[in-house]
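[audit] Reproducing an earlier prediction to check determinism. Same input, same settings, fresh worker. If the tokens differ from the archived copy the diff job will pick it up downstream; this log only records the rerun itself.
[audit] input (374 residues):
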Amino acid sequence: MGKRVLSVILVLSVLCISLTGCSKLKATTMRLLGYEGRVVLQENGRNKKVKEEARINSGSEIKTSIFSSATIGLDDVKIVSMDQSSVAEFVQSGKKLEMNLTKGSIFFEVKKPLADDETFEITTSTMIVGIRGTSGYVEIAEDGTERLIVTDGVVHVVYKNPETGEVTEADVRAGEEFRSYYLDESMIDDRDNGDDGNDSGDEGSLSGDGDDANGEDENVNGDDDNVNVDDDNTNKDEGSVNNTELTPGFVYEITDVTKETFPAFARNYILKNEEVKEKISGDMGEDELDELLWDKEYGYELSPDSYGNYASLKDVINALEQLEMVFRITAYTLNRDAEGLEHYLESKSVPGAQYITDFGFEMLEAIQRLNSIK
């Protein structure tokens, strides 16, 4: 009897392994939900095979190439989408999640608020972004500027000045942007020469170390969300900068995000995810979100990204094929191989192959005659 029971248990165990993999991919397992283009997944310095639903262990690093992207499920409710040319490390310890972004940009989405014993942080060289149940965008620009844009909820930011080590904390709300960058002499001169004291053109406040960044005449927000950050007495609702006290160094500012500062990657992510769009509009407001998503050239369609184009790997391959065609046409023409050119164009299903061939050689002869005249 005991052997029979043991046999049944063994059979059930085998079924568990074969049908469910013994639940290897639990709800809390980090995994690659999808990707496009060239994506590298490294674990302990070694490349792992990239495939959908691939497990991502703690300490793993993901890199996306140009025209590439990756979507990572940190668990069932936390999703991160990496833009092209981005690098991030993922660390998990129990219910504590940390994503260390060292290059590029990401859009994060948390579908429901975290439990009291859970944490999810996105870190950069200057920021620790504490996320509880929100969505937004984090970017490290090529010039070193780092920024956070919150699209719904409230995000707590801990900012550490890389020069002085001074730590500042602030809450960033839906529709706001936290930006840290190096303020150089040219920026200060621009402010002195008539700029409104905000490099991004928004209302907001700027703070460095030990500078009183309060103004008296530029109360632009008019709200009661007074974000006090340490003893610098920097209030978000004052929205002004005292230029006479600014000196070169690392600074940060909290401003309202505008269409000009809203990244195409975040815009496109929202447009492709109706559920995310509805959640954001309920917090930010439909009119405010509509203003950010509408583009006079693309309407509500996907628009070019920060690199000036929105292309998939298929688009890149098509472009390379067109470039190859140009080179081949040039080679046939220079070698005066009219028959070869015509056959090549026909193989590529180019309409009017004979006409294009005749016209191309006529142009070549005309150019040669002009050169002989000179």
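[audit] rerun output stored. Observation attached for the diff report: The first strand starts at residue 31 and ends at 36.
[audit] end
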